[in-house]
Amino acid sequence: MKAPDSQIAVTLYNLREFCKTESDLDRTLDKVCAIGYQAVQVSGTPLPAEVIRRQLDSHNLYCCATHENLEMIQNTGAIIDRLQTLECDFTALGAPSGEYRGSVEALDKLTAIFNRQGEKLLEKGIRLGYHNHHFEFERLPGTRSTMFEYFYANTDPRFVHAEIDVHWVTRGGGSPVNWIHRLGYRMPVIHFKDFTIINGDQPVFGEIGEGNLDWGGIIQACREAGVRWYSIEQDAPFKDRDIFESIKISFDNLKAMGVR
Predict the structure, then answer these.
(1) Which of 63, 159, 201, 246 could form a disulfide with 119 if both were Cys (CB 3.0 to 4.6 A apart)?
(2) Does position 62 have pLDDT exceeding 90, yes or no?
(3) pLDDT-derived band of residue 239, with 50, 70 and 90 as boundaries?
(4) H, E, C per residue of 167-229
(5) Which residues, 6+ apart, have CB-to-CB distance to 213 below 8 Å?
(6) 192: which residues sit within 8 A by CB, 6+ positions away?
């Protein structure tokens, strides 16, 4: 399927409770299309790639990315088959397990996997990326680097790409705009959700434009860096809002900000 002109996608992880069967997925994608989305990131649904592809085709939706676990990423044949079935050229690790974080030695194991698998996947036209949370912004013991800095300094930009999550960068104490400028040239997909505070000091997820992030600066940095897809990942709606209402608010607000 040819990629649509739109830059806005929605991550199916948001809708994971409504994507457990093919009939669930069918109804969910009906709602996604009614909002105006033309692309999705496949994540959080247990369905086989063939089933997902059938439903994407029937709804005329493009798969701009997937999230996979590290076991799948290391299974070269399986991950290539999955991405080719979905006609998708980008996948990212959602998060590494504890054995791959917290020390230089742990990070060295992770970067070695990414450099090796990234090169293998790129031979088939698939780019491998990394999706961050906030723990990557802790300082590594015995160094002046965070895990985030160390990971990208020690992976080959030809083979290892980024999928920055602007909320988690902010929660970790980093600057989304700064990191977009630093990594945007190797980032085809970015994760968007807002960041806000409730109850005096509790950080929570917010719909895009409903929190405290500098969306003008973020979007401008993405444009300057050439980021192709803005994937909305609302892990949990703000104040128990219906998730379909939530992803509509984010979509409508991005459109109002001039994103196509």
Answers:
(1) 159
(2) yes
(3) confident
(4) HHHHHCCCCHHHHHHHHHHHCCEEEECEEEEECCCEEEEECCCCCCCCHHHHHHHHHHHCCCE
(5) 166, 167, 170, 176, 194, 195
(6) 166, 208, 218, 230, 231, 232, 233, 250, 254
Tens of pLDDT, residues 77-122: 999 999 999 999 999 999 999 999 999 999 999 999 999 999 999 9
Percentage of the chain modeled with pLDDT above 70: 100
Listed in sequence order, the residues at least 6 apart from 257 whose beta carbon sits closer than 8 Å to its beta carbon are 209, 215, 216, 219
Q: Identify the residue whose tokens are 């719909």.
A: 207
What is the C-alpha to C-alpha distance for residues 39 and 9, in angstroms, rounded to an integer?
A: 5
Q: Report helix, strand or coil for 44.
A: coil
Closest listed residue to residue 18, CA positions, set 55, 41, 44: 44
Ordered domains of the chain (ranges, CATH): 8-256 (3.20.20.150)
Do residues 156 and 186 make contact, with C-beta atoms less than 8 angstroms apart? no
CB atoms within 10 A of CB 142: 8
Residue range 60-66: mean pLDDT, rounded: 98
| Average predicted confidence (pLDDT) for the chain | 97
- Give the C-alpha separation, 38 to 32, whole Å: 8
What distance in Å separates the CA atoms of residue 210 and residue 188, rounded to the nearest whole number? Answer: 25
Q: Collect all residues with Cβ–Cβ distance below 8 Å to 100 and sequence separation of at least 6.
A: 70, 106, 107, 109, 110
Mean per-residue pLDDT for 135-142?
96
Residue 235 near residue 6, CB atoms below 8 Å: no
